[in-house]
């Protein structure tokens, strides 16, 4: 943050420090398991087994990871611009409207490969729209992005309840959801991808939007590190005053960055709506927008870090379900604790262990230098 | 007289739902005035509500419950303080993390300890706050206008309700009339100046964070020990965020905090009341619109369309001593 720390080697900075933070988060989570009166090692076994034990489990893990790649990228893009987009939840939720509209409109007449692009555009459009307002308000009216995005999460949730109970619900149905989509609104599974590795996907909803997520990750990398716009964004994120002196149009960048962020968050809706449930339901986002914060923090806002971090959270979600199944006294909410701990240690307390690690490296460096000297003499 | 009756009932429920908002928003007032943003109000309130419910269920004492609520809430505040003051971490991230951890932990621990699906056992009479009736409230109820106002609006609330509204002038007095309050406000505007005057920025901010914890403790205890008899999973249901919205809506001033909380509480009560009844001129208002109204109003306020909400200058920025 604002205090300079000694420069550490790259692998320490991007590998060891996050790993140490992650390990501490897991140790504390293990203490919670102990507090509940269960064996944390047994829980860890079920976690790993539940996430990787079978082809089907891996399919579920990657299905969750797909969702988290989108929301993680969304948080990261805004973060590079110095904006803390806490509204991924609402943006993803509203993004669902785009997916639902595309599917409801085209599913009965068109095959999935026609519906999918329309749904992508729709989801990104609605997500971007929901992020545009906070972005614009920050850029032009000076309202704090964190607060407005929080407020927009709640407004989105009210809006979606309204839409799903009154507008998008089919006549005569009681459940607050759209009708089930016909085949055109259902994404094909990626069973062939896992069968390359000899795995059977089973009932897992691992679908084609995973490839879209990977493409989005690559696109974000290009955008942030290989384009002028990305450079301007990073400049702004690093030093708003430098950006101002350089003649970068702050408000324009803010609004566009937020819209890209919101668009990415909105695209998350493709995965559960078209890939699993084949309908839009209440609360389909299920906190994925917030998981995105943890994913982006863990992945250091770099697509290369976000993908493994998203997989890690996929493991937590899928393995967590298995823990809940095998150990009834631990419910799925354990994941929420771990998620919170990861956010705490990888985000807010990211520098807690840095001085110790830095000291360790300084010592190691001195010893290495001493060895070189004695050899020389 | 029917309209008057409806109004009294509406105002009564307004007061009831406003209490946790007043406590939590005042809690936020203390930390944010000291320059520490806190979106963990929700988590602290939830943690306190759980601690209160659990402790009161085990000990059958409402006071132990209240104490436990305050204790847990202060502990969580100290975690936030440690992350954002000592470690100079991102205050928003820390707040988000606390909300997550508490939500998960209350469910897991509640289920493990009481095995009632994340609830705490229903509390008996002695283990929760009782309604306080003013002398002669029943006798005077039949008097038109004044009777219902005295008997239903002023009398018949919980001790914590009166405490919440008493905390408004007390907070004002602490913030604007004591040396501690002056310094606390100063540390939120210009910590450098406070530091130059030889006063510890860190210790001041920690004290502000502790004040926040205590008040959130009251808010949580009210939820599980007064409003209902026991803790229910996720029972704050976004009240912490509404309190945050109210705090901003009030432009970080104690008296406005109370008014904003009452307004948001009134909207909430009205939303429940209006469910399904059409209004003249506008027809049926969707409940969802009423529920979203506090957030929409806050956004409009933040955008500067109705006045301007200017947060404390040093808010959200960790203090680094210049060398």
From TrEMBL, chain A:
InterPro entries: ABC_transp_permease. The chain crosses the membrane at residues 12-37, 57-79, 113-133, 145-164, 204-224, 253-274, 280-299, 306-328, 334-353. This is ABC transporter permease. It is a multi-pass membrane protein. CDD domains: TM_PBP1_transp_TpRbsC_like. Its main location: membrane. It comes from Sinorhizobium chiapasense. It is found in: Cell membrane. Coiled coil: none annotated. Keywords: Cell membrane, Membrane, Transmembrane, Transmembrane helix. Pfam families: BPD_transp_2. It comes from the Bacteria. The keyword Cell membrane applies.
Automatic annotation (TrEMBL), chain B:
Pfam families: BPD_transp_2 (PF02653). The keyword Cell membrane applies. It is a multi-pass membrane protein. Its main location: membrane. The keyword Transcription does not apply. InterPro entries: ABC_transp_permease. It is found in: Cell membrane. The chain crosses the membrane at residues 48-80, 92-114, 154-175, 206-225, 231-250, 257-276, 288-306. Keywords: Cell membrane, Membrane, Transmembrane, Transmembrane helix. It comes from the Bacteria. This is ABC transporter permease. It comes from Sinorhizobium chiapasense.
């Amino acid at each position: 943050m604002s205090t300079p720390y000694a420069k550490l080697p790259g692998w320490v900075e991007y590998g060891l420090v996050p790993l140490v933070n992650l390990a501490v988060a897991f140790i504390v989570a293990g203490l919670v398991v102990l507090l509940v009166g269960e064996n944390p090692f047994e829980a860890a076994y079920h976690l790993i087994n539940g996430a990787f034990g079978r082809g089907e489990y891996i399919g579920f893990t990657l299905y969750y990871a797909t969702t988290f790649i989108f929301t993680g990228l969304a948080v990261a893009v805004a973060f590079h611009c110095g904006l803390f987009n806490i509204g991924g939840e609402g943006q993803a939720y509203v993004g669902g409207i785009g997916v639902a509209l595309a599917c409801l409109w085209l599913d009965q007449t068109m095959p999935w490969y026609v519906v999918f692009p329309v749904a992508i555009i729709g989801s990104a459009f609605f997500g971007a729209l929901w992020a545009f307002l906070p972005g614009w308000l920050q850029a032009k009216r000076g309202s704090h992005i964190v607060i407005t995005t929080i407020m927009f999460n709640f407004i989105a949730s009210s809006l979606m309840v309204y839409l799903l109970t009154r507008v998008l619900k089919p006549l005569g149905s009681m459940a607050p959801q759209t009708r089930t989509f016909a085949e055109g609104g259902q994404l094909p599974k990626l069973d062939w991808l896992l069968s390359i590795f000899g795995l059977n996907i089973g009932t897992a909803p691992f679908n084609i939007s995973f490839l879209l997520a990977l493409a989005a990750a690559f696109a974000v990398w290009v955008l942030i590190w290989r384009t002028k716009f990305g450079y301007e964004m990073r400049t702004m994120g690093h030093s708003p005053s430098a950006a101002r002196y350089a003649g970068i149009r702050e408000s324009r960048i803010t609004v566009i960055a937020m819209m890209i962020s919101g668009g990415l968050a909105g695209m998350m809706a493709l995965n559960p709506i078209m890939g699993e449930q084949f309908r839009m339901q209440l609360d389909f986002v299920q906190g994925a927008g917030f998981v995105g914060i943890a994913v982006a923090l863990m992945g250091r806002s770099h697509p290369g870090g976000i993908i493994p971090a998203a997989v890690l959270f996929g493991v937590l979600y899928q393995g967590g379900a298995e823990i809940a199944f095998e150990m009834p006294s631990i419910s799925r909410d354990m994941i929420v604790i771990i998620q919170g701990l990861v956010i705490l240690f990888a985000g807010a307390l990211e520098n807690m262990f840095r001085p110790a690690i830095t000291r360790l490296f300084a010592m190691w460096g001195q010893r290495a230098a001493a060895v070189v000297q004695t050899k020389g003499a | 007289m029917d309209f008057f009756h409806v109004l009294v009932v509406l105002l009564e429920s307004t007061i009831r739902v406003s209490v946790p908002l007043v406590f939590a928003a005042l809690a936020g007032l203390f930390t944010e005035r000291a320059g520490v943003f806190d979106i963990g109000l929700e988590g602290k309130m939830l943690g306190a509500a759980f601690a209160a419910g659990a402790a009161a269920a085990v000990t059958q004492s409402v006071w132990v419950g209240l104490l436990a609520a305050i204790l847990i809430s202060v502990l969580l505040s100290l975690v936030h303080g440690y992350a954002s003051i000592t470690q100079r971490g991102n205050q928003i991230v820390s707040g988000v993390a606390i909300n997550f951890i508490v939500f998960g932990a209350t469910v897991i621990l509640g289920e493990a300890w009481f095995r009632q699906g994340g609830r705490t056992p229903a509390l008996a009479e002695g283990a929760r706050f009782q309604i306080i009736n003013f002398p002669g409230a029943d006798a005077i109820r039949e008097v038109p206008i004044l009777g219902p106002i005295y008997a239903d609006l002023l009398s018949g609330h919980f001790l914590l309700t009166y405490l919440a509204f008493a905390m408004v002038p007390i907070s004002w007095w602490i913030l604007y009339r004591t040396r501690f309050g002056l310094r606390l406000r100063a540390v939120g505007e210009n910590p450098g100046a406070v530091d130059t005057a030889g006063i510890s920025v860190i210790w001041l901010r920690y004290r502000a964070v502790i004040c926040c914890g205590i008040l959130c403790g009251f808010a949580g205890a009210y939820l599980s020990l007064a409003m209902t008899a026991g803790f229910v999973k996720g029972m704050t249901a976004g009240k912490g965020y509404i309190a945050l919205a109210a705090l901003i809506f009030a432009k970080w001033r104690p008296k406005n905090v109370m008014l904003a909380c009452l307004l948001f509480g009134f909207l909430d009560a009205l939303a429940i009341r209006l469910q399904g009844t059409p209004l003249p001129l506008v027809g049926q208002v969707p409940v969802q619109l009423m529920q979203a109204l506090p957030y929409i109003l806050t956004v409009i306020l933040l955008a500067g369309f109705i006045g301007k909400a200017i947060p404390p200058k040093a808010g959200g920025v960790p203090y680094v001593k210049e060398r």
